[in-house]
């Protein structure tokens, strides 16, 4: 039995959790690619030319979105828990997502 | 009674947690009827062995909470009209609590946590001392007053996914009670509350999902109360380390 969860704060929680997990999975991969600069510069070059593909740009958009959503979601949580706000937090949550979309969108437009 | 065609298909949980299952009953639809009316109709006219709880029928006692179409609700104040989908309603026992039989859950874990969270009032003065005045405008009193309308219905407890994932978690109702007492000028055991709510099952388990606040039938805000406890326990933690 599952209660209805389609309310903004629950969705904000899921978004925060999923983006956090995805970023945690991304980081080791990221460091591994960076380490190629020392161990296999050839391979790194090939990888870097692959990142010019539109598909890689799209993935970068996703990455920036995750980062932004996690950062603003985190700020929202800190504000919620550390500032004595009884204010409409749903609006804040929605705001966090929209700012994330804005930043990642701006980045996306800049790279294409 | 409505016309013959005006029949609700009501599936109701029968049995205990493990061997139970949903059984469907046909209940005459009325112009105005609450979910509790439907459950009562089934017990009166279809199956007298149906077990459920209610008392006041006006949203004061908090005993009639059930899962209605998988959402926790106070059934005496929930109109069938609002929840019915294509003539069907599904009624189950409250989530996150052991089922005794049918729609009656064992509320012991819920109330035990109430006590564990420091929810029992501790007097700060004896009867021989003058009664300290309570200023209703004071910030702390406003916080306390916000929480005292809780009717212990356990809807927040049933709605909370953190409770579902961690059986030791005290849950929104007990923590909100703790926050209320913490802000009550006449409560004499502030430190005990802070210790009780900062332990393993305490307020820091909360992920601020806000289902408690979203589902509370009395429009209370346990999520913010728990956030208050998080602030207060953290503040005390740093103060104690310094002191
Ligand atoms: S019967 Fe008392 S709250 Fe519903």
Automatic annotation (TrEMBL), chain A:
What sections of the protein cross the membrane? Answer: 61-79, 91-111
Q: What Pfam family is a match for this entry?
A: Sdh_cyt
| Required co-factors | heme
The reply on keyword Transcription regulation is: no
Cell compartments where the protein resides: Membrane
Top-level taxonomic group: Bacteria
Tell me the keywords, alphabetical order: Heme, Iron, Membrane, Metal-binding, Transmembrane, Transmembrane helix
Protein's job: Membrane-anchoring subunit of succinate dehydrogenase (SDH).
The record's similarity note reads: Belongs to the cytochrome b560 family.
How does it associate, per the subunit comment?
Answer: Part of an enzyme complex containing four subunits: a flavoprotein, an iron-sulfur protein, plus two membrane-anchoring proteins, SdhC and SdhD. The complex can form homotrimers.
> What is this protein called in UniProt?
Succinate dehydrogenase cytochrome b556 subunit
* Species the sequence originates in: Roseobacter sinensis
The gene coding this protein: sdhC
TrEMBL record, chain B:
The question of whether Iron-sulfur is a record keyword is answered with yes
Coiled-coil annotation: which residues? Answer: none
Pathway field: Carbohydrate metabolism; tricarboxylic acid cycle; fumarate from succinate (bacterial route): step 1/1
> Which InterPro entries does the entry link to?
2Fe-2S_ferredoxin-like_sf, 2Fe-2S_ferredoxin-type, 2Fe2S_fd_BS, Beta-grasp_dom_sf, Helical_ferredxn, SDH/FRD_Iron-Sulfur, Succ_DH/fum_Rdtase_Fe-S, Succ_DH/fum_Rdtase_N
Which superkingdom does the taxonomy of this entry point to?
A: Bacteria
The cofactors named for this UniProt entry are: [4Fe-4S] cluster; [2Fe-2S] cluster; [3Fe-4S] cluster
> What are the protein's UniProt keywords?
4Fe-4S, Iron, Iron-sulfur, Metal-binding, Oxidoreductase
2Fe-2S ferredoxin-type domain sequence ranges: 8-95
- Subunit details for this protein? Part of an enzyme complex containing four subunits: a flavoprotein, an iron-sulfur, cytochrome b-556, and a hydrophobic anchor protein.
Family assignment from sequence similarity: Belongs to the succinate dehydrogenase/fumarate reductase iron-sulfur protein family.
Protein known as: Succinate dehydrogenase iron-sulfur subunit
Give the species this sequence originates from.
Answer: Roseobacter sinensis
